[in-house]
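User: Can you write out an input/output pair for a complex, sequences first and structure second?

Assistant: Here is one pair. Inputs:
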Amino acid sequence: MMLVVVAAGLAIISLGIGPVRLSPRAVVTALGGGGDAIAEVIVREIRLPRTILAVAIGAILGLSGAALQGLLRNPLASPDLFGAPQSAALGAVLVIALGAADVRSWALPAAAIAMAFVSVFALLAIAGRNASLLLLILAGLALSSLAGALTSLALNLSPNPFAALEISFWLLGSIEDRSFRHVVLALPFIIAGGAILLGRRHAFRVLSLGEEAAQSLGIDVARVRLSVIVGVALGVGGAVAVSGTIGFIGLVAPHLVRPLIGPDPARLLLPSALAGACLLLASDVAVRLIPAAEPLKVGVLTSIIGVPFFLYLIMRERRSLGGAAT
Amino acid sequence: MSGRARRRGAVVAAMLLAGVAGAQAEATRPPRIASINLCTDLLLLPLADPEQIVGLSPYARDPTQSWRAGEAARYPRLSGEAEDALAARPDLVLAGSFTRLETRQFLTAHGMRVEEFEAALSIDDIMRQIIRMGDIVGHPERAAREIAAIDAALARARSTVARRRLRVLDLSRRGWVSGSASLTSALLAAVGLADAARELDGRFGDFHYGGFASLEAILSVRPDVLLLSEPGDHAEDQGRAFLMHPALEQFYPPSKRMVLPERLTTCGGLMVVEALERLTAEVERVER
């Protein structure tokens, strides 16, 4: 409940700030479709899509993280560590580098989703069923390095002279100056992915007893696995197609709410999504407030916050990681 | 070493003769020149005799960036690196001051004469560079003819000057605005237009040498017209998609977007004549 209030508050702030200073009153009238024509366009065509994307993308990243942690019973699971955003970005980068399609067309999310699916599927296939933390992290590292290497290759070979610039910006991750066309492009996939993941919440609860126990209680573990992969791929792929890679929200969000909610993976899903939305909204507000010569990209900020958090988690899990290695 | 030194001596002598004695210098062999930078390619092409050019940079044949792509394709293509520039055995190499430092140092270290050209930021810069290039190739009379052509184009532009001092924002992909110290800004001033980048400067960051402007900043400055490098509404990447954002399209339909191809503004040279003509025609179209 509290999270909803925080998210709503942050969303309002997100509508209220930007490079052009508008009074709160001007923002409200502009939102209602009145007042100054320029203010109306700024609020409704620039800030509103940005805010909607921050909520939707943050939520799906948080939800994907919680779902993967539930599926694998593993607190270090997240789309980022599995190379899903990196692979989705590779799909999108291929479309950009080849100059094959308009970036505002369905080709972009389709390519991103396909690559995200391949990477999560490959990871779970390589790591096997009862994979240890170490194995998962190593396989994830290898996959994201592969996606990174192929992205560099695409950059290297691209006939579009601006590809290097475009791709580097893409990899930074940003939702500034997006339009409703981008919202239309991403939202259906994010909603579909989110619905699939939420639909599996009871399976996660049973899975926390262990896979054999879940199997004996009538849960088709293989099917749950596949549907989580599809859900994560749809959600993350759709998100990355418009924002580029925005990292570590999927890792951090579930950990933020776990102390409040408790360890039940089913109850954790929705709060994780809300926490993800709050995190991305807050980061996106922060990049607009932090004074810098060039505007900061939100993906840079989330990674800078996320990686130390990841290191902290590794420290905490040091014992089990060491144990898995023996 | 001594042979190369002698050749260099001959080049210097040829230049001096060309400058001082004019026609008498015809007897000495004019220098053979390699260019490893697009802008020096384009200064060199209209001034040198074809047999003087031993090679041009790879970008010279790219029609989106090069003003004389077709003509450039007739000359050997250099990689832009030191190796093949040396192997082509020119008397001197032309480079931009932004060409990789290592390449330039390597060439000088191997006894090659390297002439560096800065990026031209004004029409005066262009004229100075044309005169300098004319002296280097040994054809100052051709340089003088180019200067006269540019002067005539400037006079024509001034005579058909805009009825109203339109405020124009030169906008490229991702919201890049070329700054008030840029060739495009100088061209705008030459046809009587105001560069709206000056209005962004200070309010939304430092735009003197260019910078990225956000959509909100552009809309709040509200220039009369946008100046783009290409028309059309295909967004092959997110950077082009910026220019087709609904918020921009609403205020700037095609009738409020002037187009000046990149190949006319990337470098300074004789192409300013065509750039001024295009710009004048675009002003007339927008004002109609």
